[in-house]
Automatic annotation (TrEMBL):
It comes from Yoonia maricola. One of its GO terms (cellular component) is membrane. It comes from the Bacteria. Residues 10-112 form the Prepilin type IV endopeptidase peptidase domain. Keywords: Membrane, Transmembrane, Transmembrane helix. The chain crosses the membrane at residues 6-22, 29-46, 52-74, 95-116, 128-151. InterPro entries: Prepilin_IV_endopep_pep. It holds the Pfam family Peptidase_A24. This is Type IV leader peptidase family protein. GO terms for molecular function: aspartic-type endopeptidase activity.
Length: 152
């Protein structure tokens, strides 16, 4: 695995997390562990680790924010771990923009998910999003992470 492939693998983790949470309502622990393992691999193969140390500092800040959200009941533990792992890969210079995108996507997708559930939802649906009044935070995390890693 080359250094260039590691962010692509992280992108795949985000897409899988989004789909799994929308389908099942959970982000599995094994999936939230993958960003940290990928970052550890990046630390091993990277020549200059200075920017990676800044990424770890950013991730600590995101983790503290996530813990506050978890304590207030605003997110689940899986979302906190996924958000922290994603922060390891969003460049520090793009983190503020990624945060803005996170909040924009969260508010817009909340409205869209509620409207989709009203129109097509059913308690008998096998998709967690369609059967329950939930907002999958992994969608906002994934869109913001992918945007921060690849498009900003």
């Amino acid at each position: 695995m080359t250094v260039d492939m590691i962010p692509l693998a992280m992108g795949a983790v985000l897409v899988v997390a989004m789909v799994l949470e929308i389908k099942t309502g959970r982000i599995p622990n094994w999936l939230t562990l993958l960003p940290f393992l990928l970052f550890a691999a990046l630390l091993v193969v990277s020549g200059d680790r200075t920017t990676l140390y800044w990424q770890m500092g950013l991730a600590v800040g995101v983790f503290v924010f996530g813990l506050v959200m978890f304590a207030l009941g605003g997110s689940g533990a899986g979302a906190v771990k996924l958000m922290t792992g994603t922060a390891l890969f969003v460049p520090l210079a793009k983190a503020g923009y990624a945060a803005i995108i996170f909040f924009l996507v969260f508010f817009i997708s909340s409205f869209v998910f509620v409207q989709i559930r009203k129109a097509f939802g059913s308690e008998n649906s096998s998709w967690h999003l369609m059967a329950n009044a939930v907002l999958p935070l992994s969608f906002s995390i994934g869109v913001a992470g992918l945007t921060g890693m690849f498009w900003l």
